[in-house]
Amino acid sequence: MRSRRLTIAGWMLVCAGAVVGLQIPYFYLHNDIASRRLLATAQQLAAGGSTQGDPAATQTAKAALAGGANGEADEGAASGPAAAAPLTTTVPLSASSSPVLGLLDIPKLHLQAPVLEGTADATLNVGVGHLTGSALPGMPSVCLLAAHNATWFRRIDALQPGDDIRVATAAGTFTYSVTGHRIVQAGSPLPQTAAAELVLESCYPLGALYLTSQRYLVTAVLTGTSAPTRRADLAGASDTSGVGSAPARSGGARSAVQPPVVLAQVPSDLAQQGLLLHENNLPLGTLSYEGSPATAWTESAWPLAVTNAATQLWDAWVHGSEQRRTGDLRAMLSGAVDDASQARNPLFAASPDEVIYTSRVDIALNVQGMRLTAVKMTARLRVDGTLWDLTLTAGAVPLATGSSPDKAGYRLVLTGVSARRPS
Questions:
Q1: What residues make up the domain containing 169?
Q2: Are 103 and 167 in contact (CB under 8 A)?
């Protein structure tokens, strides 16, 4: 009995380390594997080699190569404004090679999500992860499924006792009935049970993009089992988000499950400096929505991919401003920045030590149905002792002309910057 309690406690400790919410993705986005893969892809393209198997990486590498040499810009010499570096695109989310175990279906939330084995970074980029070591769906003891709070599990607090949760696998479709929910500290052990139970876990608060110390748990008990799901149907489970993910193939082999492709347009010299969250001091706040987004969009991998690109766009603007790269700033705004704007940019020529975030960076996505239209990022900063409210807006441009954006993806282009002193 004690051994089993320790085992379950161990599961929760593992989960606490693996599922730490949308710190976009924060450390989920910035793994060395993704960087090495993109570099290798770019080298293959430069040499004329093949890059099959990773469309997102291929697209990003091509854009980087097309940008040409990434020399340092003249930082505001007296002879004229600094020249702009070639534009390139940011680092996308990494793909997952984890096997697809099944499909999670929550009728009340209109949620359908692929269930993949494990809770690794890339796995949680594209779906719901089954905690390795916990019971498989339908088996005795606790089956733990974890997902990001601001994506797949952003509305699990709406579940009430008696609501159904279904998990379809090759072994059968298992129906669970919700028994309750609670908020616990990260690392808290699950109660011991001999019955077949299900726990949905996510970081709390559910709208937070930052690292949290609490977990939101939904508990449920097994109430029914039906016939096994065909493997052919499960093979398509990786495409339930409508993002064109590569499904698993028969015979044990599988393609990488691709996240949505969302990239930001930034100058290549700024991209070289590192724009991922683990390379910058960017305290993230909450995610909200404007417009009339479809549930199938908000409860998917899209918000994670968009926020990943948006944070890199923000950091590129901050770096360019602090380094007086007027050419880069103009290029990011398609020439909309004039010389007078330097006086209205509190970050221009500011030392990084002088820039202090007094609030978190909140992100609002404008989504109409299944189509992303715009992104807005806001934060309050203290620059050399003076408070400023900084707002960046970006438009979402489909990557492929004539193709559905939910299949081709988006490129975020900076459309406006506003810096005002709070009233």
A1: 2-27+93-252
A2: yes
Q: Are residues 246 and 281 in the same domain?
A: no
Distances in Å between the alpha carbon of 179 and those of 112, 176, 184, 187?
Answer: 20, 9, 16, 21
Q: What are φ and ψ of residue 4, in 5° steps? A: -65, -35
pLDDT digits (tens, 9 = 90+) for 280-318: 989 999 999 999 999 999 999 999 999 999 999 999 999
For residue 74, pLDDT over 70 is answered with no
How does pLDDT run across 79-137, given as a tens digit for each residue?
Answer: 345 678 999 999 998 888 888 999 999 999 999 999 999 998 889 989 999 999 999 99
Two tokens, residue 73: 């810009």
Q: Residue 11 pLDDT more than 70?
A: no
For residues 257-277, one letter each, b for 16 or more C-beta atoms within 10 angstroms of the residue's C-beta and e for the rest, the string is bbbbbbbbbbbbbbbeebbbb
- Let me know how long the chain is: 423
Q: Is the pLDDT of residue 69 over 50?
A: no
**Is 403's pLDDT higher than 80?**
no
Tell whether 377 and 237 lie within a shared domain.
no
Domain identity same for 308 and 371 = yes
Q: What is the DSSP letter of 363?
A: E
